[in-house]
């Protein structure tokens, strides 16, 4: 096993800036956007001074992994953006199976095979659910949209595969698909859907761009979704930009979402039924390409009545949040109940401590230069697992 290291809170601001500029290929999205100078509430970056033995690379053989889920026997399901889903050994070191039966994905820009999760009743009926960028056909050729599919996992094959939901409409471009799946205790599922880099559809209730939806396992719509006048019935909340992380808070069915905002406007949101989260009318941050200054703003400003404020936001530095969890394991008792959020920019795992719905502390942990953390999971062993864009599965353990 290869050990890699990393201390939190490292690297000079200059190096971060240079790296981020080098990595920046898409000015419209913090998914690949640039970091800027350090913000005030975060620990100032310094050069690495020590090795953190808690950061252990289990594998570096994955190809653009995007989502992970743990099987009952400890083996790990991992999606790869290019359209492959694999099962890793429980040790996380070996790819044991590549699954068959997946539909084609639109693997371009930010699109591809995205999140995966197990049905809460997987032990009695082995459904898994995944999201992906679905390519359009026929009249929709060249377009794409986020879709949700399910299949029964038997051995290394997916059976009875069906697409249970399609974002509407499919559009051009390869940005902001979202997407994560989170199950409630009532067996309905939330799915986070990006606004496909089209801005205003996030406020248009006749589309499902920039929305969180809630559906049943067969794709039908629960009758008790919020009633929002004029909206598609699956919409649970709206005004989202690119929500790439989702987790249910322990002790209830509260959905929390991490959302890639504009330049200097990344957010963590607690989702309430029918809530409008602002994009692109009200938001922190500036559009990519605009110089950051007191004068630059999105839409009508940072807040206004009827728009829900984020619990946490990153100004002026974008960190591009990805997958997230509420930690419930025994391995790190001091972190129980904390949020852990991956970052694509600044290449760190963020720990966010909450007092009810207020953030009381946040810090960057496990900085690794040139890594982009894409998903965060908690293993049945109580340790934290990370996927990185460079192809690593990392275990955080004490
Ligand atoms: Ca917002």
Account of the 3D structure:
- There is one protein chain.
- The protein is mostly beta strands and 398 residues long.
- The chain has one helix and 26 strands.
- The chain has a single domain (13-396), classed as 6 Propeller (Neuraminidase).
- Strands 1-26-25-24 form a four-stranded antiparallel β-sheet, with no helix packed on it. The chain has a four-stranded antiparallel β-sheet with strand order 2-3-4-5, with no helix packed on it. Strands 6-7-8-9 form a four-stranded antiparallel β-sheet, with no helix packed on it.
- A hairpin with a 5-residue loop joins strand 10 (178-183) and strand 11.
- It starts with 12 loop residues before the first helix and ends with a strand.
- Calcium ion binds next to loops.
Q: What sort of overall outline do the alpha carbons produce when their principal axes are compared?
A: globular
Low-pLDDT segments, ≥5 res: 1-30, 32-50
How many structural domains are formed by the residues?
A: 1
User: How many DSSP helices?
Assistant: 1
Report, as a whole number of angstroms, the end-to-end distance. Answer: 16 Å
Which ions, cofactors or small ligands are bound in this entry?
calcium ion
Report the mean per-residue pLDDT as an integer: 88
Radius of gyration: 19 Å
Structural class: mainly beta
SSE series: HEEEEEEEEEEEEEEEEEEEEEEEEEE
What strand line-up does the widest sheet have? 1-26-25-24
Count of distinct strands: 26
The percent range for strand residues is: 35-45%
| CATH class wording | Mainly Beta
- CATH architecture classification name: 6 Propeller
Q: Report the sheet with the most strands, covering strand number, pairing sense and barrel closure.
A: 4 strands, antiparallel
